[in-house]
Amino acid sequence: MPKSKVVITDFINPPLHHEEKILGDIAEVEALNAFSEDDLTGKIENADAIMLYHFISLTEKTINRLENCKLIVRCGVGFDNVDRALAREKGINVANVPDYGTEEVADSAIGMMLTLTRGVHYMNNRLQRGAGPWIYEQVKPTHRLRGRTFGIIGVGRIGTATALRAKALGMRVIYYDPHVPDGRDKSLGIERIEELDDLLSQSDVVSAHCPRTDETQHMINDETIAKMKPGAFLVNTARGGVVDAHAVLRAIEGDHLRGAALDVLETEPPEEDDPLMVAWRNPSHPAYDRLILNPHAAFYSEEGLDDMRIKGSQNCLRVLNGQKPRNVVN
């Protein structure tokens, strides 16, 4: 009996030890290392299962050409880079890996928050290039974190883990999430806020932990940032489209936001001439000292990366063996 074919579209390159250990008996595994959807042409059409990461999207262009595909696993939490509705029409399950990087992303969000609120990034940047005096007064006023308000948008797995970490620091933790059932606040010992505007106006730090959907696309924009406290901080380790990064830049330029940390952007990697990048790299621009950008790395640890690959491969194995997939999102 011929082996099935599993294609890894992007992000992961050989050696494929994890994937081959799990799938090797029943499938040929091929990594395409694609950086655009066009790179898949002629290489993916006969795949029985697909493992998709976050460098590219699977749209109508590709999905309509799939001949045998039973499952597309988005090896990560977010799944906005695959046309789930069309896949369903074609009888293809789309699944994600929702639990692979919970601790890592929560740790990253808190790390970014601490780096911003304690002035670590700001002072290091300025002193390194000889800007300003060698004294703490460069970051006045800096306030004790205990008792400050940490506002979370979305209390799924990662939002919950982040809430517990902020709570351990003695912060008042509040959240906005219209999709979770009543009682989440009671079980976690945090406060539910019914309206996003109220969360924004109360928070000293706002941290986004929601998926990118039509509802959340540019949820944080010029209008909503204006409702945040003057001097507040913003952290995004969720999806790039949740936050309008150019609105963040404008809020830093206007001195409304004291700082921001963005692990994710709408276009990754961003264009070199993107105004955000130009400002971030310009020592004379306030974003140089007050904006932290990371390359979609909040999920990363060696253990987390292994989880992503192993759990994605295991789901492909289930389907190729005639079993139902886990974590279907369409």
From TrEMBL:
Molecular function, one GO term: NAD binding
EC number(s) recorded for this UniProt protein: 1.-.-.-
Keyword tRNA-binding in annotation: no
Keywords, comma-separated and alphabetical: NAD, Oxidoreductase
Domain D-isomer specific 2-hydroxyacid dehydrogenase catalytic positions: 17-330
Pfam families to which the protein is assigned, alphabetical: 2-Hacid_dh, 2-Hacid_dh_C
InterPro entries xref list: CtBP, CTBP_dehydrogenase, D-isomer_2_OHA_DH_cat_dom, D-isomer_DH_CS, D-isomer_DH_NAD-bd, NAD(P)-bd_dom_sf
D-isomer specific 2-hydroxyacid dehydrogenase NAD-binding domain span: 110-298
One annotated GO biological process: regulation of transcription by RNA polymerase II
SUPFAM superfamilies to which the protein is assigned, alphabetical: Formate/glycerate dehydrogenase catalytic domain-like, NAD(P)-binding Rossmann-fold domains
Family affiliation: Belongs to the D-isomer specific 2-hydroxyacid dehydrogenase family.
Record-given protein name: 2-hydroxyacid dehydrogenase
